[in-house]
Amino acid sequence: MESLVERVLGPAAPGERLRTDALFALAMAVSAVVVVRSVRDNGHVPDVLGWALLLVAHVVIVWRRRAPVRVMVTLMAILLVYHSLDNNHTAPMAVSMVALFTVASRTRPRNTLLIGVGVMGVMLTVKFSEGVAEGAESLRISGWIVAFLLLGVYVRIHRQYVASVVERAERAERTREEEARRRVAEERLRVARDLHDLLAHSITLVGVQTSVAAHVLAADPDRLDRAAIAKALDDVAETCRAARGELRATLQVLRSGSDDEGGTGADEARGPLPGLDGLPDLADAARTAGARVELAVADCRAPAAVGAAAYRIVQEALTNVVRHAGPGITVRVSVRAEGAALCVRVADDGCGGPEHGGGQGGGQGGGHAPGFGLLGMRERARTVGGTLDAGPRPEGGFLVSAVLPLAPVPLGGLS
What is d(CA 97, CA 112) in angstroms, rounded to the nearest whole number? Predict the structure, then answer.
């Protein structure tokens, strides 16, 4: 009953709880007086000492929830003296049962067992010493003692069960919030990688293609190569269109993800992931920027996440080559399956020299400020459970080598 009131009205303050217990004790004291006046065949009407003991018993019960065992022991001592004077034996029944219920509902089972055995042992010993009839009557009262103890045990178990349910619900809520924050962080990282790859690749190509057009214009103003200029401008337009499409898809993920807490909208808006079939387009784009690209892609089936990781790694590697290497650089791109892994290898001959950062290494060394290219490639490899190594080659140039497992893995925010 107490736990039900607390769940409905909320936990009471200590002062309010003590006030409630005092009013409850007063109500039991009034009922004890009524019992004394109405029940005449179960002991004598209490004298001054009997009334004093009965009053003290109801005063002690006010602190039953703060110290249930101590209150119960004190109450046993008071009522033992009260009953030994053959005062009305029914009057203190209510306060006795309330104290037993409190012990059973608020303390450990061992305390409940000890208190129950102690109360019944003292009662049966005293009553049977007064005669068999008194002992038989005490056996009837023992049933009430056991009933209130069992009721208290049930309330305690129910209270613990409710507390465990509430705790599990709160823990599940915290877990959901942590999972939501984790997914938001992963999505932000994924979008940041996508934007880096997209913008770096597109801006680099646009810069190279416009440089080609500017070179043609400046080389011989009197004899313009209109075809070369038109081709360079067409390449710029195509690069911008492709970049605009990818940028629109990326921003659509952000827009849908903000309205969809479960993340399913973001997954649908993400669209098909780029894969190995898009590598020839990357190679063509790098060729239009002046690089000689040798592409070798073995016929193999890779999970979408693995194919997307390989695509992004090759895209970033080619972007670094175009951005930091000199003219006429040769890049060899190899993608093949070896056992249960997809091996991606991008190697350049480093024709650009040290001032260009050594091909793909530009932006990570060679006097340039640290960038996010190699870091992003390593993150993409780790996302699918793979590894990536990058560094200068002994014979010159730069090498990016990634090993990506072909076993299906969760997307984990990769795109």
Answer: 13
